[in-house]
Amino acid sequence: MSAERAEDHHFQEREDDPEGEDFIDPNDVLIELAEDGDHPMDDDEDGQGPGPEDEIVWEDNSIQHFPNHKGSVFAVSTHPTAPLVASGGEDDLGYIWDIVTGDELVKLTGHTDSVTSTAFSSDGELIATGGMDGKVRIWRRVGKEDWNKWEFLTELTGPDEVMWLRWHPKGTVLLAGSNDTTVWLWQLPSGNTMQVFAGHMGPVTCGDFTPDGKRIITADAEGTLIFWDPRSPVPVFKLTPEDQRFALDGITSLAVNPASTLAVVGGTSGGVRVVSLSKGEVVSALAGHQEGESVEAVEFVELAPPVPLSGTAAPAAGGVVVTGATDGKACIWDLGTMRLRATLEHEDAVTSLHRLTTPGKGHLIVSASTDKVLRTWDARTGTLVREHKGHSGGVLAAALGMAGAVVVSAGDEGVCLVFPTE
């Protein structure tokens, strides 16, 4: 879950209960009614109260749970090889816990506001947490034999409020987007600032390294997309809403294809744009989501086996991408033809999408939703493979773990659950 959505979550709670407690203004009382001995309203007609058949029973097919957070859970991430999860929440805390047992291993303290981002480095030796307090805190594994022991390493400062965190795909370099329009790049374990990118006009809502690790792509709430060389503070190119082909209102999500040649960008307007990273221009607009419904997630999928090293088979042009929005739809797009292949349905907003990277499983994708359910789909056909139920609140974030065998979810009710993906 992004820091922007976490902030909206806080605002909604304050709006519902502005004083932090229930109260009645005496001037609002129209008439007082005397007690007449009537039964409470929750009793049934015979005055016996609700029976066992009236109790609500939540369906739960999870295989593990982690209930230690005291408030909504906004972020989960999984270790690249070990059965570990890092979660962060509204209680200003992060945790490292065991996927298999559900046991708490480490409490990640030091934040003074909600923890909205957690991320393991590509080698699994470091864990970063980012919060609404602007802090980025780093822990490292202690020793080489035990994955369960971690120690605090350093605190990185600079951002006003951390919107998201991403590690370099091959090194210990950390990227962060801030609410104050800046993007920060640090070298770990030294904690030295490598670059501060300026050029956005609004909160930097999403960003990442390209899969090849050579470039950085970031986007903001005002609708600007910037492509960077990590070694330079000057953009490689910038797309803004002044170009009507790129008018998305605010940008909420993006993803880059495995070849690092195309970016797919989603906006608050419900629009989706395909951008050529080599040319720095929009090559297509994809219209499948309801107008005005924010595109919250973008994920590429793999529908064919990798091209043989002999080069006798040509790769599919463009690839296949899935976009998920607050209209409850996940749309599967063929970027070779720029056409819609299938539409996947949730009953409420889609909050995240996750492609299995296990060999031979690249066609499977897991979607999470505020309808309290996660679903595994076959992106080749759009058919439902499995439903994952157990949350009593909306699913705000998710991550695949244990080589794609499980999906870990973060619930608005404060619980993390673990499900088998198939």
Automatic annotation (TrEMBL):
Name of this protein: Ribosome biogenesis protein Sqt1
PANTHER family xrefs: ANGIO-ASSOCIATED MIGRATORY CELL PROTEIN, MITOCHONDRIAL DIVISION PROTEIN 1-RELATED
Protein's UniProt keywords contain Repeat: yes
UniProt-listed SUPFAM superfamilies: WD40 repeat-like
Basic and acidic residues biased stretches: 1-13
InterPro entries, per database record: WD40/YVTN_repeat-like_dom_sf, WD40_PAC1, WD40_repeat_CS, WD40_repeat_dom_sf, WD40_rpt, WD_repeat_multifunction
Acidic residues bias: start-end ranges: 14-25, 41-55
SMART domains reported in the protein's UniProt record: WD40
Organism of derivation: Dichomitus squalens
Top-level taxon in the UniProt lineage: Eukaryota
UniProt keywords, alphabetically: Repeat, WD repeat
Keyword Repeat assigned: yes
Region (Disordered): 1-55
